[in-house]
Amino acid sequence: MQDTIHHPGQDSAIGDRADLMGSIVAAGQRAGIIRPDLETASVTECLHILECLAPAAGEADLPRQERGVFSQDRAQPCWEISMAHVCEQSSEWLMTHAGKSTSGLFFDVSKMCDAVFIIKLIASPWSDTILWNIAAMTPADLRQEHKEAGMPEPLINLVHMAAQADARFLVLDSDANPLEGLPVYDW
Which H, E and C letters describe 122-149, residue by residue? Predict the structure, then answer.
C-alpha cells in the first residue's frame, strides 16, 4: 500500500475547489447555460460556464436586453449552415454521434429533426492559447483527434471554421440557404 503525504490545509483546498465548482454550476443553471439537474461539472465545463457568463468585449456597457437571446449575460453566436455543405459521410457521422458524448472532441451533437443537427461548440474560439490552457493542445492537435474519431474532413473543416469564428452553436439545416464559397454536396 502506498503512503500518501498529507499537507496541512489540503482538505480545505479540496473543499474550497469543490465549493467554487459548485458555485459555478449554480450560476450556470441560473443563467440557463446548463441543465438544472446537473450536480457537478468538469474543470473544462466550469471554464466554459464562466466564459459564457462573462460579457464579451464591448458588451459590458450594453443594456441586458441588447446582449443576446441565448443567455441573460452574453450573446451566444450561432452559425446556421445548409446541409448542402455536408457530405453524406458527414451526415452519417452526425447521425451516429447525435446524443452521445463527444465533449472530449470539444463539441456535442444533437439531432433536432430529420434534417437539422445542432453542434454545441465547447471552449471556442479554438485558438492556440485557449486550447493550450484547457487541454494542453493546439487546434492542429484537436483536428488530429477529430480525424482519429472518424470525422470526415468536410465536417472537420465546418466545425473548425465555426469554432475559429467564435460561434457557440453550429446549426446544420436543410432549409438554410447555401453559403457562397463553401463546397456543396449533392447526394
Answer: CCCCCCHHHHHHHHCCCHHHHHHHHHHC
114 or 137: which carries more pLDDT confidence? Answer: 137
Please report where in the chains the cell 450536480 appears, as a residue: 39
63 is written with which cell numbers? 443594456
| C-alpha to C-alpha distance for 59 and 21, rounded to whole angstroms | 25
SS3 169: strand
Cell 452521445, located at residue: 100
**Is the pTM for the entire model greater than 0.70?**
no
Number of separate helices (H) and strands (E) present in the chain: 6, 4
HSE toward the beta carbon, residue 180, CA cutoff 13 A:
0
Contacts of 140 (CB under 8 A, 6+ apart): none
Cα–Cα distances in Å, from 89 out to 73, 94, 109? 37, 9, 15
Question: If DSSP codes are grouped into helix, strand and coil, which group holds residue 186?
Answer: coil
CB 44 within 8 A of CB 122: yes
